[in-house]
Fold this protein.
Amino acid sequence: MASKASIVFAHGLWADGSCFNKLIPALQAEGREVYASQHGLDSLEGDVACVTRAINHVPGPVVLVGHSYGGTLITKAGTHDRVGALVYLAALAPDEGETTQDQQDKFPTMPVFGHLDVTDGRIWLLESGIGDFCGDLPAAEQKLVLATGAVPVPDLFAQQVPGTAWRTTPSWYVVANDDRTVNPDLQRATAERIGAKTRAVDSSHVPMLSHPDVVLDVIREAAATLDG
């Protein structure tokens, strides 16, 4: 058993594991094993399997950290017996029998969804929408986010697999108050529903990039509950 909890990150749509690059070095410097799962966004089942493989790859108790759709992934994969804490970043967290789309449909549609294009069987974020996704980053960082984002199949949010880890696993939630991608009211309602310890920050949809110190504090708090 590892003396310190490991951290596994799960990214969402129009992102990849590099969206956690302001968090990973600091956690590694503290002696933690860290791994960022990479998702093809071809199917919910396949993406959950990616997170499960990442959990299996690292030692000891595990903190799962999910951003956006990554919250759905840690909700499903977090039923793994070595997962001891869940950290949601501006994230979805559907209940059993509820799809990601079901959860989103309970709240008004956000501005980013007016800047999408479906081509080659994928949903692409247009450059005109990057400000609604990560508008509080410098322009150069916004361009990098746009260039490195994985693109989903159109029905990804309608897919379903079993698992609701937050019902039995302690949870933390970072609410992005200025989010224009996942409704902040949805975030607050989700944090309350799952009984999460909640931290709010005046951030766009990417608090791990615009406010990494805040997110690191929350991850460290969650990890400290599992450290040997």
The beta strands are 6-10, 34-37, 62-67, 83-89, 116-119, 122-125, 171-176, 197-201. The first strand starts at residue 6 and ends at 10. Residues 6-224 form a domain with the Rossmann fold fold (CATH 3.40.50.1820).
